[in-house]
Design a protein that fits this description.
elongated; 14 helices; Dna Ligase, domain 1; two-stranded antiparallel sheet; about 350 residues; mainly alpha
Length: about 350
């Protein structure tokens, strides 16, 4: 019995040791599990923030270009430099997994929201450029300088000064209208489209222009003056008659609108010195039409230029409410000026 108790005591002791070691192992295992989980989480977070998530300064609504013939390492490095991706290495790996550099589509891309490296890789390997036409309105009477500012503000590839340089030879012949241009449209594309639109629209007046018998350049130049001088179709035809009457009588046109083109000044801003300026567009100094149109006239103004109202008026003025008054003599004109303008 004595030995049995001793053996039982030994087994009891060994069992207690075993249970203690088992508890210690379980506690250690839990700690190891937590450590491993934390390590995996930290590594995952690092990989995501450094290689997968979009950069904080992701270029939204900006053109990003992949040049034709570029290789994957260069493309990846350029997109990292442009802050499209955080890691060129990650992009190369993902693109390779999606089929390799041969699938990359060169061209201009635009992103409307931040994308992670996986989505960027999908976009450039499927050619999802994200380019949608911009709706841009060019108002009647707009000059090439005004157009340049409008297009440069809306289209990334357009420089205002460069646009004016290319468009100025077509002053008056770039049709005012609503246009839809892709964000990567160039100055040449825009000018060609606007000139073609003019040629298309002017066909509806081909008969009247031919019957009128004056060169198209003169017609458009006259229409550009009329566009600035009146807003109502009836007034435009009457003013057209006044201006053609003055030309027929070899009189100075004395159209204030020409100063808007050269000086940016409206009628009530002009000074006596302005009226004496030695400028070919100064119709107070030089007879006949200005050298070029002073803006892009509407079709209605072009029609008014070739269908002038037949009358004997040689003068006109507009009051502060937009009403136009016409006179046949200078004395009558002065009287109406005193009456309606108080001058």
């Amino acid at each position: 019995m004595k030995y049995e108790r001793i053996i039982e005591s030994v087994f009891f002791f060994l069992g207690a040791v075993r249970d203690h070691l088992s508890d210690e192992w379980r506690r250690g295992a839990n700690q190891r599990t937590i450590f491993i989980a934390l390590l995996i989480g930290f590594v995952s977070l690092y990989v995501y923030t450094q290689h997968i998530e979009p950069p904080y300064d992701f270029p939204l609504q900006e053109l990003v270009t992949i040049p034709e013939g570029s290789h994957l390492p260069d493309i990846s490095a350029n997109l990292e430099s442009a802050h499209v991706v955080n890691s060129a290495v990650a992009l190369r790996l993902v693109v390779t997994a999606l089929g390799g550099a041969t699938n990359i589509r060169a061209g201009d891309y635009i992103f409307k929201e931040p994308l992670n490296v996986l989505d960027v890789a999908r976009r450039i390997t499927t050619g999802a450029y994200g380019l949608e036409p911009e709706r841009i309105r060019i108002h009647e009477g707009a000059t090439t300088q005004e157009m340049g500012k409008i297009f440069a503000a809306r289209l990334a590839r357009v420089d205002a000064d460069r646009f004016v340089e290319k468009a100025r030879p077509h002053e008056g012949f770039l049709f005012p209208d609503t246009y839809f241009f892709l964000p990567n449209a160039s100055e040449d594309v825009i000018v060609n489209a606007m000139r073609q639109n003019f040629d298309k629209n002017i066909q509806s007046l081909a008969g009247e222009i031919a019957s009128f018998g004056k060169p198209l350049e003169d017609v458009v130049t006259m229409a550009s003056l009329i566009e600035r001088e009146a807003y109502k179709s009836a007034d435009r035809r009457t003013i057209s008659g006044v201006l053609w009457n003055r030309i027929d009588k070899n009189m100075l046109l004395q159209v204030d609108a020409a100063f808007l083109y050269t000086m940016g000044k409206a009628t009530f801003d002009l000074t006596l010195e302005d009226l004496k300026a030695d400028d070919p567009y100064n119709t107070y100094k030089y007879k006949g039409l200005p050298p070029t149109p002073i803006g892009s006239p509407s079709l209605d103004s072009i029609r008014a230029a070739v269908t002038p109202e037949k009358h004997k008026y040689l003068f006109y003025l507009a009051d502060n409410h937009g009403t136009t008054y016409f006179s046949t003599t200078y004395e009558e004109h002065l009287r109406k000026k005193r009456l309606y303008l108080g001058t």
